[in-house]
Each structure stands twice: as structure tokens, then as C-alpha cells.
Write a structure and sequence with these properties.
Layout lengths: L1 H15 L9 H11 L6 H14 L4 E6 L8 E6 H8 L3 H14 L3 E5 L5 H8 L5 E6 L2 H13 L5 E5 L2 H12 L4 E4 L5 H12 L7 E5 L5 H12 L5 E4 L3 E5 L7 E4 L3
Parallel strand pairs: 3-4, 3-6, 4-5, 6-7, 8-10
Antiparallel strand pairs: 1-2, 7-9, 8-9
Bound molecules: S-adenosylmethionine.
């Protein structure tokens, strides 16, 4: 039933999503034409995709401590790295979207909730080596593989906080002081998603960008997404179905767009 609802939501998106011509405001038009509707295939992206290929072929087994939606904490199980890589990581299209957003807006301090094997972290970090990526992961063995991956790609601007987001996020945010981009890709449930948003919001500024993964994954995630869209601090919100992008810029009018991607 859950799967059927998800497919119906996807059809609704396909029927309602608009292209660049729906954008009257220059900011949105620029975002669609220069960031959403372009392609990136540079050396950095090729290296990250080569890493993904290796991970997708890895028979190595790790002990997963699952903190995510639908699993009880400490529900430990053995899984092959190739299965984690195939099922958890954002694909190349979305990884490269993150990369373009970071290249275009140059956020300095980047937060990522949900490192997994580090594929999306690599995209966030490689876009701008002068930025700092603070990524968060609950599973110790997964985080260790991610750290190794950052070394393999000579990435030095990522640090991982290991532990439940509930225990690591606030302290880290207080240390960082300000957040310029936040990618929320872990624990896809309504209440945690809203609470991570509220917590990070305390450290946000006019230029902060939020990116939420899996906004249509469940009724709860849709409720969280609707809450974020209608929040008094958010202005421009963009639904790309698999991710939702949120701008806070007070100079923009409060508007929501469903855009083809
Ligand atoms: C979808 S994966 C992240 C994928 C990654 N962003 C990528 O695209 O390469 C989500 C990760 O979040 C972690 N996670 C989920 N809930 C968590 C929590 N409450 N605390 C810490 N980690 C959590 C899971 O262990 C999992 O590795």
C-alpha cells in the first residue's frame, strides 16, 4: 500500500511539475537554468562515480547499526558494502545537483545528516575545497568506510560526527556557529525531520539553503515538508520530488514551485 501511494505521488509530481518558463522571478529562473537544468561531468564527479562503482562491487561485509526510519535503534545486522552503496546513496544525478548547488552558491559551512558511505559528502566537499563539510552518521562501521573513502579521494574538508543525531547535532552546531547549507538525508520521519530543521534553523542566516531528501517517501515526510514550506522563516521552496530545496532569503516572496528534474 505504501509503495502504491508513493507511485501515485510520483505520477502527481510528473503531471504537475513545470519547467523554466513557469519562473517569473529572476532568482528562480537563474536557479533553474544555471543549476537544476545543467549537467556536470568534470574530473571530480568522474572520481566520485568511480568510487561508487568500486563500492557497488564490494563484497566486504560490515556490521550495520541502523538508526533510520522504520528500524529500531541498535537493530544490528551484517550487510555487504555493495548493498549499502546501491540502496542508500543518492544517485549520480542528485549527487551532481548537490555539487552544482555548492559550486554556484559557495556555502562555507555545510551540514549533512546521514553520511552512509560518504558518496554525497564527497560531492558536497569536492565542489569547493575551501568549504567545510560536517557530516553526521550513527553507524560506526559505515562511518569508518566513509572516512576511508574521503582519504581515497584526497578530501580534507570533511569531518564526521559519529553517533545518534540527537546526541551529536546540537553540540556540533554550537561549535560551528553558522550553517550555510544543510542536507538532511537520514531518519526520514516526520517528527525527527521537523526537529532537525528547527535545530539547524537556529544557526541559519538569510542565505542558508536547506535540502531535504525523500520529501514524498511517506505521509509523515509529506507532513514534515508541508510544515517546512509553510514555516514563517522559509520563502522560496522547490519540490524536485526526490528532494525538496528551501531558501530563506527574505527579499524573495514566499512561493512554492514543483519543478521538473
Ligand atoms: C540514506 S543514508 C545517507 C546517504 C548519503 N547521504 C548518500 O547519499 O551517500 C542515511 C544514513 O543516515 C544514518 N542515520 C539515520 N538516522 C540516524 C540517526 N538518528 N542518527 C545518526 N545516523 C542516522 C543511517 O545510518 C544511514 O547511514
Amino acid at each position: 500500500m505504501k509503495k502504491v501511494k508513493f507511485i501515485l505521488r510520483y505520477f502527481r509530481y510528473k503531471l504537475t511539475a513545470k519547467g523554466k518558463h513557469s519562473a517569473q522571478a529572476p532568482f528562480l529562473y537563474g536557479f533553474i537554468t544555471k543549476v537544476i537544468n545543467t549537467k556536470t561531468e568534470d574530473e571530480n564527479c568522474n572520481k566520485i562515480e568511480a568510487l561508487r562503482k568500486d563500492l557497488c562491487n564490494s563484497e566486504q561485509t560490515i556490521q550495520i547499526t541502523d538508526f533510520g526510519a522504520g528500524s529500531s535503534i541498535n537493530n544490528s545486522q551484517k550487510r555487504k558494502i555493495k548493498d549499502v552503496a546501491r540502496n542508500s546513496a543518492k544517485n549520480a544525478k542528485f549527487g551532481q545537483l548537490l555539487y552544482r548547488i555548492c559550486k554556484f552558491y559557495k556555502p562555507q559551512n555545510i551540514i549533512e545528516l546521514g553520511t552512509s558511505l560518504g558518496i554525497s559528502s564527497c560531492y558536497l566537499a569536492k565542489a569547493n575545497p575551501n568549504s567545510k563539510v560536517f557530516t553526521f552518521e550513527g553507524c560506526t562501521e559505515t562511518a569508518a568506510i566513509a572516512s576511508g573513502n574521503f582519504k581515497k579521494l584526497d578530501i580534507e574538508n570533511i569531518s564526521i560526527a559519529i553517533g545518534d543525531f540527537n546526541n551529536t547535532l546540537t553540540a556540533k552546531l554550537e561549535g560551528i556557529g553558522k550553517v550555510d547549507l544543510a542536507f538532511i538525508d537520514g531518519n526520514h520521519q516526520e517528527t525527527p525531520t521537523v526537529s532537525y530543521f528547527e535545530e539547524i534553523l537556529k544557526f541559519a542566516n538569510n542565505d542558508t539553503i536547506f535540502i531535504f531528501d525523500d520529501i514524498h517517501w511517506s505521509c509523515g515526510m509529506e507532513t514534515a515538508w508541508n510544515y517546512i514550506k509553510s514555516h514563517q522563516k522559509t520563502t522560496l521552496t522547490i519540490d524536485l520530488f526526490f528532494v525538496g530545496i528551501v531558501f530563506m532569503k527574505s527579499e524573495l516572496s514566499k512561493e512554492h514551485f514543483t519543478i521538473r528534474f
